[in-house]
């Protein structure tokens, strides 16, 4: 009876708060040309007391137990593919805070008094997460782990006392290929498991066909000013779909040019001539799609656990465009933002959205029909310079397009076989910038550097950089490519080694993250096919040198005529002489015989 | 009259060599960096670029030994941080290297003029009349393209070479203490010169000055070893204090030579062997290669007891071939010492073959390296093959010199065999 009562007591409050503890939302934002950004966001809160009592409801038990076992205070895990094209797509979703570098990126604050303890817990965490997410996270070893100093700040609310006894570790696997086997466990962590709600739109074929795709898992404690602390699990999927590619029919997947009569031409071009030359303006007329076309399936109602107050689907599009929603959906418009439209959906009804083409009047080119993307605070790109497999350089081009100076932390986590020469680090401001006279010391304010140790740890480089308005800065440094033991090369050694993306965290004017693309480093390779030959050749050379010297040192010198004749040589010379004698005898006998015959004939 | 003549010509040779280097440094400002980047001249333990990186970290209060780039002795750091920055004032670094080269040449001059090569305490060569003059030896060293390249490439092994030459010169001039101090410096900088200690002690013992003579060989060598050990310990203790009270530098400077963890290509035999060796045999072969290097010291010192200078020369030749990170500066030191034995040239048998092989390797080495690393039309075997040829050619020189020394010795007891064909049984 008492146990039943306590059970009831446990259930009742959780049922009461459940409505507010989980919400999910899909934001659709058409981007220039045929790109469409879809941001899925799932957020679940569990009170810290419940979590510590192993009382998992919305929080997945599998992940919760790992976090408890590894003493993890805050966790961030990213699976990313592709490149965000900031030049045309503008600022990143969530200001870049929900994306990682290409591959897998993981950082966490672990409860640990010493660095050794942190390393142990980190090993536990990476190995457990590796199993949970079917990713090679267990390959995040000492050489791929760094301890960032400036770049990452905890997102959750931690009391100062606990923060002092935690360690931040950061690991990255740039070579990891993110694919459907990582999506399945991701969906399984959701309360509705991808069976209902916006998660039912997530299909591996479409997600991993996207131009850019990032899956993020964030676990952080949140302590509101009143009320108890909660542990928040936020799962985010951002994807930039190519609408044209998504709409390509399954039965005819090979793209073919449309026939001439289907082309929509820009007739304002001087060279336009019907049936002869045409400047296609199809993409200028804006996108048109339906939800089921771009995601490959329809949305199956809403998740029953989700907060009813939060509309599950929102579209960012100018109010002039027409959108039709399926029956039963309720459109909400906001007075403060007229380009935002959200839809409330019945719980068990299929939902679809249809965005229609803008109608162009006559030959006039229609406006883009999308919300213009915001200009980012900073553009960043990074590449290798130099040629050959001995020396190289890294060049990061950082552009501040705005009117305010930008201050940021530039962080690199480089593999140990890239021997960085920090004394060659320089920051050069481009000649076309207004403040050409700014020196390297004015740009790089602070350097935090931890050099690599062979086979033990990678290079960690953090720079505090400030760029004046409208300036481009070239950050360069040299490195040497080391040659490895032949067992240390991967089977595809001539493909090269992946170098993780640089992480840029802007501090001024606002906090946001940017990641460059990862790089492919081509190291010199030995000949993998001939270890035996090399061992034999080198040993022979050494044996020749040693044997020669040894002979000279230990043997006695005598005159050539005093030396006793070697037994073998005697035999050999005797044999040769015997042969010679035989031949001489044979030739003598041969010439004698005919003479004898002649005498007989006579 | 003749003394002023020789003095004049000495000044001429030294000034000419200094001027040549200075012109190369100043007229071709990109040449030093080009040569520094060459694997033939710079090895991981002698590279000037790595020294600069270590210096940068040292100046910015990051321990250079907490990283995988810098593998050179700690005392080089304060020495170079005293010099003005090499990027803005390259001339001061250049002057330092030129000075070190001239000092080495001076030491060679002293060694050659002592006549030890032809006449030691226990042995007088019948051919000693033909020995080379000190000036010629110094000029051969100073104008050797290998020496010039290592000077312009600013390899830190020129400091080791200078210390070794001074150790020999001091031993010859009868000051064993200075000699031991010099060899301690060399060993501290590069480790391998410690193996030169036995023949050097013998040389110093033979050439003691009459005033402070120690009769007992054991007593003398114990004293010498004690001096060297004290001096090395002092240097190591200074380094310990200099690197923030940590012994990390031992593993980074000497440990890397013992374990060969950095496999950057060199002209030697170790790098490719230890790239390709199976992991389970790595430790065994490291031990074998080091044992092979050490084993010559005892054998040569005993067999050629009467000629310690010849032992030193032969050992330097062996080290230039078989040490973990050999480079051109080591070869230039061996060739400089070889010039002391001009009276033995007529009885060397393979000088033509050996020098042709070395020339061949000198020209083809950079070409094959280019094919492998830059053009991509060759693979690592190209450069490996040429390092084999280089090593064979040089070891041929070494064994030929050994043969000539022994024959010269033998002809003292068999003067009738001069110029006749001989055999070894």
From TrEMBL, chain A:
<keyword id="KW-0472">Membrane</keyword>
<feature type="region of interest" description="Disordered">
    <location>
        <begin position="583"/>
        <end position="602"/>
    </location>
</feature>
<keyword id="KW-1133">Transmembrane helix</keyword>
<feature type="signal peptide">
    <location>
        <begin position="1"/>
        <end position="19"/>
    </location>
</feature>
<feature type="transmembrane region" description="Helical">
    <location>
        <begin position="530"/>
        <end position="553"/>
    </location>
</feature>
<protein>
    <submittedName>
        <fullName>GPI transamidase component GPI16</fullName>
    </submittedName>
</protein>
<dbReference type="InterPro" id="IPR007245">
    <property type="entry name" value="PIG-T"/>
</dbReference>
<feature type="compositionally biased region" description="Low complexity">
    <location>
        <begin position="585"/>
        <end position="602"/>
    </location>
</feature>
<keyword id="KW-0732">Signal</keyword>
<keyword id="KW-0812">Transmembrane</keyword>
<dbReference type="Pfam" id="PF04113">
    <property type="entry name" value="Gpi16"/>
</dbReference>
TrEMBL record, chain B:
<feature type="transmembrane region" description="Helical">
    <location>
        <begin position="12"/>
        <end position="31"/>
    </location>
</feature>
<keyword id="KW-1133">Transmembrane helix</keyword>
<feature type="transmembrane region" description="Helical">
    <location>
        <begin position="180"/>
        <end position="203"/>
    </location>
</feature>
<feature type="transmembrane region" description="Helical">
    <location>
        <begin position="304"/>
        <end position="322"/>
    </location>
</feature>
<feature type="transmembrane region" description="Helical">
    <location>
        <begin position="352"/>
        <end position="375"/>
    </location>
</feature>
<keyword id="KW-0337">GPI-anchor biosynthesis</keyword>
<keyword id="KW-0256">Endoplasmic reticulum</keyword>
<comment type="similarity">
    <text>Belongs to the PIGU family.</text>
</comment>
<keyword id="KW-0472">Membrane</keyword>
<protein>
    <submittedName>
        <fullName>Phosphatidylinositol glycan anchor biosynthesis class U protein</fullName>
    </submittedName>
</protein>
<feature type="transmembrane region" description="Helical">
    <location>
        <begin position="89"/>
        <end position="112"/>
    </location>
</feature>
<feature type="transmembrane region" description="Helical">
    <location>
        <begin position="224"/>
        <end position="242"/>
    </location>
</feature>
<keyword id="KW-0812">Transmembrane</keyword>
<dbReference type="InterPro" id="IPR009600">
    <property type="entry name" value="PIG-U"/>
</dbReference>
<feature type="transmembrane region" description="Helical">
    <location>
        <begin position="381"/>
        <end position="406"/>
    </location>
</feature>
<feature type="transmembrane region" description="Helical">
    <location>
        <begin position="269"/>
        <end position="297"/>
    </location>
</feature>
<dbReference type="Pfam" id="PF06728">
    <property type="entry name" value="PIG-U"/>
</dbReference>
<comment type="pathway">
    <text>Glycolipid biosynthesis; glycosylphosphatidylinositol-anchor biosynthesis.</text>
</comment>
<feature type="transmembrane region" description="Helical">
    <location>
        <begin position="133"/>
        <end position="149"/>
    </location>
</feature>
